[in-house]
Amino acid sequence: MLPDFDRIKLRLSNGALMPIVTMGHGHTPVVYIPGAGDGLSTAYDAAWNMAWFFRSRTPHQRLHIISRREDIPADYDIADHARDYVEALDRLQLGPVVLECNSAGGPIGQLMAAHRPDLVRALVLASTTHTIDAHAQGVFTGWLTMIDDGLWAELAWDTTVRTYRAAQRAQWAAPVLKPILGALSRPTNPIRFKRLLEGLLRVDNSSILGDISCPTLVFGGTRDPIFARALQQQMAAAISHARYVEAPGHLHGADLESPAYPRAVAELITATR
């Protein structure tokens, strides 16, 4: 059974709308910043999927899944997104929160924790990084080329096999699965997804990791094919109160597949009440 949820679109001072889905119960608010998939479908549009994914956590946690602004202008970078999220938390009077950041949401959360520690009581950095190295840049550049060429089936398949272990084992079925995934994942606003990815290419938060003072969980798969294990270890080592937990054998979707992830998040929440 799916948990109940509420959906709103918060209008920011710059006129943009931020989609927000709220569900669950608990004394500590958890704000979830999605990864790059947010460019394909916002939390508002994917609310039922979000409710299914978070169903086991809703009895004990009050979750606020907040998407990036609906219209992403050209040259909108991570700092711009972080300002939007800070305004949203201030407007909603949510802080201090447990800030849970997936993949491309990680650099946004790092800026928020470093520059507005009053808003963030604890930080979760899941399957993410603090800087885009040459390998990750090559992955994103490849995806941007696929977007420009309209190769949605290839894009959907590439992101899936980098995320889920089952997809890697089902490579033999790619000719059948690719068209299906492409049809299901084609966004109504491709330019939004493209601009989200473009904003990641220049990310380097190395200089601000030492300014993050809250308890932090860094969680990743040992076989992440987008953000290398060494990068995630480096990120954890640079944050003073970070705990590094890895999921052996998992890919970029370690936080989506590993049962160790929700346990680690729950432990962090309990420790920071």
Structure description:
The chain is an alpha/beta fold and 273 residues long. It has two domains: 198 residues, Alpha/Beta hydrolase fold, catalytic domain (Rossmann fold); 61 residues, no CATH class. The chain is 41% helix and 18% strand. The protein is built from eleven helices and eight strands. An eight-stranded mixed sheet has the order 1-2-4-3-5-6-7-8, sandwiched between helices. Helix 2 packs across helix 3, helix 4 packs antiparallel against helix 8 and helix 5 packs across helix 7. It starts with a strand and ends with a helix.
Compute the number of structural domains. Answer: 2
The oligomeric state of the chains shown is single chain
Question: Order of strands in the sheet with the most strands?
Answer: 1-2-4-3-5-6-7-8
Structural class: alpha/beta
Estimate the global geometry from the Cα principal axes.
Answer: globular
Number of helices: 11
| CATH fourth-tier homologous superfamily of the largest domain | Alpha/Beta hydrolase fold, catalytic domain
The CATH C-level name of the largest domain is Alpha Beta
Q: What is the terminal separation in angstroms?
A: 28 Å
Q: How does CATH name the architecture of the largest domain?
A: 3-Layer(aba) Sandwich
Output the helix-strand order: EEEHEHEHEHHHHHEHEHH
- CATH topology grouping of the largest domain: Rossmann fold
Q: What percent of the residues sit in helical stretches (DSSP H or I)?
A: 40-55%
